Protein backbone atom coordinates (compact mmCIF):
# COMPACT_ATOMS: atom_id res chain seq x y z
CA UNK A 1 0.00 0.00 0.00
CA UNK A 2 1.63 3.25 -1.12
CA UNK A 3 1.40 6.53 0.68
CA UNK A 4 -0.58 9.20 -1.10
CA UNK A 5 0.30 12.87 -1.08
CA UNK A 6 -2.42 15.42 -1.75
CA UNK A 7 -1.42 18.91 -2.77
CA UNK A 8 -3.93 21.75 -2.57
CA UNK A 9 -3.42 24.49 -5.13
CA UNK A 10 -5.54 27.52 -6.04
CA UNK A 11 -7.24 27.48 -9.42
CA UNK A 12 -5.35 30.66 -10.32
CA UNK A 13 -2.10 31.06 -8.37
CA UNK A 14 -1.75 34.71 -9.37
CA UNK A 15 -5.21 36.07 -8.67
CA UNK A 16 -7.40 34.25 -6.16
CA UNK A 17 -9.14 37.04 -4.27
CA UNK A 18 -12.48 35.26 -4.25
CA UNK A 19 -15.37 37.11 -2.60
CA UNK A 20 -17.27 33.83 -2.30
CA UNK A 21 -14.31 32.38 -0.43
CA UNK A 22 -14.30 35.44 1.83
CA UNK A 23 -18.02 35.11 2.52
CA UNK A 24 -17.75 31.38 3.23
CA UNK A 25 -15.31 32.26 5.99
CA UNK A 26 -17.10 35.37 7.22
CA UNK A 27 -17.24 33.94 10.73
CA UNK A 28 -13.42 33.83 10.83
CA UNK A 29 -13.28 37.37 9.45
CA UNK A 30 -15.73 38.49 12.13
CA UNK A 31 -13.73 36.72 14.86
CA UNK A 32 -10.42 38.29 13.82
CA UNK A 33 -11.99 41.74 13.50
CA UNK A 34 -13.72 41.56 16.87
CA UNK A 35 -10.53 40.22 18.47
CA UNK A 36 -8.51 43.13 17.06
CA UNK A 37 -11.04 45.62 18.42
CA UNK A 38 -10.90 44.11 21.91
CA UNK A 39 -7.10 43.84 21.94
CA UNK A 40 -6.69 47.45 20.77
CA UNK A 41 -8.50 48.86 23.82
CA UNK A 42 -7.76 46.12 26.35
CA UNK A 43 -6.66 47.48 29.76
CA UNK A 44 -6.96 51.10 28.60
CA UNK A 45 -8.34 53.75 30.93
CA UNK A 46 -10.65 55.52 28.48
CA UNK A 47 -11.13 52.64 26.02
CA UNK A 48 -12.68 53.65 22.70
CA UNK A 49 -12.31 57.27 23.78
CA UNK A 50 -8.89 57.12 22.13
CA UNK A 51 -10.67 56.95 18.77
CA UNK A 52 -11.98 60.45 19.53
CA UNK A 53 -9.00 61.92 21.36
CA UNK A 54 -6.44 61.13 18.66
CA UNK A 55 -8.03 63.11 15.80
CA UNK A 56 -9.41 65.81 18.12
CA UNK A 57 -6.10 66.60 19.85
CA UNK A 58 -4.26 66.43 16.52
CA UNK A 59 -6.78 68.92 15.14
CA UNK A 60 -6.11 71.28 18.06
CA UNK A 61 -2.34 71.13 17.45
CA UNK A 62 -2.77 71.69 13.72
CA UNK A 63 -5.08 74.65 14.36
CA UNK A 64 -2.56 76.33 16.66
CA UNK A 65 0.52 75.81 14.49
CA UNK A 66 -0.77 75.81 10.93
CA UNK A 67 -3.74 78.19 11.16
CA UNK A 68 -2.77 80.58 13.94
CA UNK A 69 0.96 80.70 13.20
CA UNK A 70 1.23 79.49 9.61
CA UNK A 71 -1.87 81.31 8.32
CA UNK A 72 -2.81 78.37 6.09
CA UNK A 73 -6.15 78.95 4.32
CA UNK A 74 -9.05 76.59 4.84
CA UNK A 75 -11.28 77.07 1.78
CA UNK A 76 -13.68 79.47 3.49
CA UNK A 77 -14.61 77.23 6.41
CA UNK A 78 -13.27 77.24 10.00
CA UNK A 79 -9.87 75.57 10.10
CA UNK A 80 -10.74 73.20 13.00
CA UNK A 81 -13.52 71.54 10.99
CA UNK A 82 -11.41 71.67 7.81
CA UNK A 83 -8.50 69.79 9.40
CA UNK A 84 -10.67 67.41 11.43
CA UNK A 85 -12.65 66.29 8.37
CA UNK A 86 -9.34 65.43 6.68
CA UNK A 87 -7.81 63.83 9.76
CA UNK A 88 -10.84 61.59 10.13
CA UNK A 89 -10.07 59.63 6.97
CA UNK A 90 -6.29 60.08 7.21
CA UNK A 91 -6.10 58.45 10.64
CA UNK A 92 -8.23 55.58 9.38
CA UNK A 93 -5.87 55.15 6.42
CA UNK A 94 -2.58 55.48 8.33
CA UNK A 95 -3.54 53.33 11.32
CA UNK A 96 -5.12 50.63 9.15
CA UNK A 97 -2.07 50.44 6.85
CA UNK A 98 0.19 50.13 9.90
CA UNK A 99 -1.90 47.40 11.54
CA UNK A 100 -2.43 45.52 8.27
CA UNK A 101 1.30 45.52 7.48
CA UNK A 102 2.04 43.84 10.83
CA UNK A 103 -1.02 41.57 10.83
CA UNK A 104 0.66 38.45 9.43
CA UNK A 105 3.55 38.70 11.88
CA UNK A 106 1.11 39.20 14.76
CA UNK A 107 -0.79 36.05 13.74
CA UNK A 108 2.29 33.87 13.24
CA UNK A 109 0.98 30.90 15.26
CA UNK A 110 -2.37 30.94 13.49
CA UNK A 111 -0.77 31.04 10.04
CA UNK A 112 1.70 28.22 10.69
CA UNK A 113 -0.82 25.83 12.24
CA UNK A 114 -4.14 26.32 10.45
CA UNK A 115 -4.99 26.65 6.77
CA UNK A 116 -7.30 29.47 5.71
CA UNK A 117 -7.11 32.20 3.05
CA UNK A 118 -4.34 34.43 4.38
CA UNK A 119 -5.79 37.60 2.86
CA UNK A 120 -8.45 37.52 5.59
CA UNK A 121 -5.83 38.66 8.14
CA UNK A 122 -4.92 42.06 6.62
CA UNK A 123 -8.53 42.60 5.52
CA UNK A 124 -9.74 42.21 9.12
CA UNK A 125 -7.21 44.84 10.25
CA UNK A 126 -8.53 47.29 7.65
CA UNK A 127 -12.16 46.65 8.64
CA UNK A 128 -11.29 47.22 12.31
CA UNK A 129 -10.24 50.77 11.46
CA UNK A 130 -13.80 51.62 10.39
CA UNK A 131 -14.92 51.26 14.00
CA UNK A 132 -12.62 54.11 15.06
CA UNK A 133 -13.73 56.12 12.03
CA UNK A 134 -17.42 55.84 12.90
CA UNK A 135 -16.78 56.77 16.54
CA UNK A 136 -14.73 59.82 15.57
CA UNK A 137 -17.35 60.80 12.99
CA UNK A 138 -19.70 61.71 15.83
CA UNK A 139 -17.36 64.57 16.81
CA UNK A 140 -17.41 65.89 13.24
CA UNK A 141 -21.22 65.94 13.36
CA UNK A 142 -21.06 67.94 16.60
CA UNK A 143 -18.51 70.35 15.11
CA UNK A 144 -20.70 70.90 12.04
CA UNK A 145 -23.60 71.78 14.33
CA UNK A 146 -21.38 74.13 16.38
CA UNK A 147 -20.02 75.94 13.30
CA UNK A 148 -23.43 75.95 11.55
CA UNK A 149 -22.17 73.92 8.58
CA UNK A 150 -24.97 72.33 6.57
CA UNK A 151 -24.25 68.85 5.17
CA UNK A 152 -23.83 68.61 1.42
CA UNK A 153 -26.34 66.70 -0.77
CA UNK A 154 -23.27 64.78 -1.99
CA UNK A 155 -23.16 63.18 1.47
CA UNK A 156 -24.96 60.25 -0.14
CA UNK A 157 -21.68 59.49 -1.96
CA UNK A 158 -19.80 59.01 1.33
CA UNK A 159 -20.02 55.17 1.22
CA UNK A 160 -18.42 55.25 -2.24
CA UNK A 161 -15.47 57.33 -1.01
CA UNK A 162 -15.08 55.06 2.02
CA UNK A 163 -15.03 52.06 -0.32
CA UNK A 164 -12.20 53.69 -2.33
CA UNK A 165 -10.32 54.33 0.93
CA UNK A 166 -10.85 50.67 1.84
CA UNK A 167 -9.41 49.51 -1.51
CA UNK A 168 -6.41 51.83 -1.18
CA UNK A 169 -5.70 50.74 2.39
CA UNK A 170 -6.23 47.05 1.66
CA UNK A 171 -3.99 47.15 -1.41
CA UNK A 172 -1.14 48.72 0.57
CA UNK A 173 -1.87 46.28 3.40
CA UNK A 174 -1.43 43.33 1.01
CA UNK A 175 1.87 44.71 -0.31
CA UNK A 176 3.37 45.65 3.05
CA UNK A 177 2.20 42.61 5.04
CA UNK A 178 3.66 40.25 2.43
CA UNK A 179 6.92 42.22 2.25
CA UNK A 180 7.09 42.33 6.03
CA UNK A 181 7.24 38.54 6.14
CA UNK A 182 10.40 38.49 4.05
CA UNK A 183 11.99 41.79 5.06
CA UNK A 184 11.40 42.53 8.73
CA UNK A 185 12.83 46.05 8.47
CA UNK A 186 9.62 47.01 6.62
CA UNK A 187 7.95 47.55 9.98
CA UNK A 188 10.52 50.24 10.82
CA UNK A 189 10.14 51.97 7.47
CA UNK A 190 6.35 52.19 7.59
CA UNK A 191 6.07 54.97 10.27
CA UNK A 192 8.57 57.06 8.29
CA UNK A 193 6.66 56.39 5.07
CA UNK A 194 3.33 57.35 6.70
CA UNK A 195 4.84 60.55 8.11
CA UNK A 196 6.12 61.65 4.71
CA UNK A 197 2.82 60.76 3.03
CA UNK A 198 0.94 63.09 5.38
CA UNK A 199 2.68 66.12 3.87
CA UNK A 200 1.64 65.07 0.35
CA UNK A 201 -1.99 64.72 1.41
CA UNK A 202 -4.43 67.66 1.69
CA UNK A 203 -5.09 67.22 5.39
CA UNK A 204 -3.23 70.24 6.77
CA UNK A 205 -3.65 72.44 3.71
CA UNK A 206 -6.10 72.78 0.79
CA UNK A 207 -5.12 71.60 -2.69
CA UNK A 208 -5.58 75.09 -4.15
CA UNK A 209 -2.48 76.51 -2.41
CA UNK A 210 -0.38 74.53 -4.91
CA UNK A 211 0.28 75.85 -8.43
CA UNK A 212 -2.47 74.68 -10.78
CA UNK A 213 -0.09 72.92 -13.18
CA UNK A 214 1.30 70.56 -10.50
CA UNK A 215 -1.85 69.77 -8.53
CA UNK A 216 -2.32 66.55 -10.47
CA UNK A 217 0.94 65.27 -8.97
CA UNK A 218 -0.70 65.36 -5.55
CA UNK A 219 -3.39 63.03 -6.88
CA UNK A 220 -0.78 60.32 -7.51
CA UNK A 221 -0.95 59.84 -3.77
CA UNK A 222 -3.81 57.28 -3.70
CA UNK A 223 -5.49 58.73 -0.62
CA UNK A 224 -5.08 62.41 -1.59
CA UNK A 225 -7.99 62.81 -4.01
CA UNK A 226 -10.15 60.56 -1.82
CA UNK A 227 -9.62 62.72 1.28
CA UNK A 228 -10.29 65.91 -0.68
CA UNK A 229 -13.55 64.43 -2.07
CA UNK A 230 -14.44 63.03 1.37
CA UNK A 231 -14.17 66.52 2.87
CA UNK A 232 -16.13 68.14 0.04
CA UNK A 233 -18.97 65.61 0.13
CA UNK A 234 -19.49 66.07 3.87
CA UNK A 235 -19.04 69.83 4.26
CA UNK A 236 -20.30 70.96 0.86
CA UNK A 237 -18.01 74.01 0.88
CA UNK A 238 -16.80 73.36 -2.68
CA UNK A 239 -17.54 71.09 -5.66
CA UNK A 240 -15.94 67.64 -5.71
CA UNK A 241 -12.80 67.59 -7.84
CA UNK A 242 -13.69 64.60 -10.00
CA UNK A 243 -10.45 64.75 -11.99
CA UNK A 244 -8.30 64.54 -8.88
CA UNK A 245 -10.54 61.80 -7.50
CA UNK A 246 -10.32 59.89 -10.78
CA UNK A 247 -6.51 59.93 -10.74
CA UNK A 248 -6.39 58.78 -7.11
CA UNK A 249 -9.00 56.09 -7.83
CA UNK A 250 -6.93 54.84 -10.78
CA UNK A 251 -3.78 54.65 -8.65
CA UNK A 252 -5.82 52.92 -5.95
CA UNK A 253 -7.00 50.22 -8.36
CA UNK A 254 -3.42 49.64 -9.55
CA UNK A 255 -2.19 49.30 -5.96
CA UNK A 256 -5.04 46.97 -5.02
CA UNK A 257 -4.72 44.67 -8.04
CA UNK A 258 -0.92 44.45 -7.86
CA UNK A 259 -1.18 44.00 -4.09
CA UNK A 260 -3.49 41.01 -4.57
CA UNK A 261 -1.16 39.57 -7.22
CA UNK A 262 1.96 39.90 -5.07
CA UNK A 263 0.19 38.64 -1.94
CA UNK A 264 -1.06 35.53 -3.77
CA UNK A 265 2.40 34.92 -5.21
CA UNK A 266 4.10 35.21 -1.81
CA UNK A 267 1.42 33.41 0.20
CA UNK A 268 2.78 29.94 -0.54
CA UNK A 269 5.98 30.81 1.38
CA UNK A 270 4.41 32.52 4.42
CA UNK A 271 4.37 29.47 6.70
CA UNK A 272 7.97 28.60 5.82
CA UNK A 273 9.64 31.96 6.46
CA UNK A 274 7.42 33.72 8.99
Structural class: mainly alpha
Give the CA-CA distance, first to last residue.
Answer: 36 Å
Order of secondary-structure elements: HHHHHHHHHHHHH
- Number of DSSP helices? 13
Tell me the total number of β-strands. Answer: 0
| Mean pLDDT across all amino acids | 86
- Sheet having the most strands: none
The radius of gyration computed from the alpha-carbon positions, rounded to a whole number of angstroms, is 20 Å
Sum up the overall morphology in one term: globular
Strand percentage: under 5%
**Helicity level, as a percent range?**
55-70%
pLDDT below 50 for ≥5 consecutive residues: which ranges? Answer: none
Domains, number: 1
Explain what you see.
The structure is a single chain. The chain is mostly helical and 274 residues long. It has one domain. The chain has helices at 19-24, 26-40, 50-69, 79-101, 103-106, 108-113, 120-146, 158-182, 186-198, 215-218, 224-235, 242-267, 270-273. It starts with 18 loop residues before the first helix and ends with a helix.
Ordered list of secondary-structure elements with their pairings:
Blueprint: H1 19-24, H2 26-40, H3 50-69, H4 79-101, H5 103-106, H6 108-113, H7 120-146, H8 158-182, H9 186-198, H10 215-218, H11 224-235, H12 242-267, H13 270-273
Helix pairs in contact: 2-7, 3-4, 3-7, 4-7, 4-8, 4-9, 4-11, 7-8, 8-11, 8-12, 11-12
Which key terms come to mind for this protein?
274 residues, mainly alpha, 13 helices, 0% strand, globular
Amino acid sequence: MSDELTTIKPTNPWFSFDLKDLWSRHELLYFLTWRDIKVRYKQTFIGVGWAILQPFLTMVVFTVFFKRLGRIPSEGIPYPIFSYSGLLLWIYFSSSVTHASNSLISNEKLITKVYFPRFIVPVSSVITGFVDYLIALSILVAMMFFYHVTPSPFLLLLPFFLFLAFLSTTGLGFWLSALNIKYRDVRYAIPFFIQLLLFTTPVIYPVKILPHNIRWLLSLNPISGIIDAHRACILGHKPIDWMSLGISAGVTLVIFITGVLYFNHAERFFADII
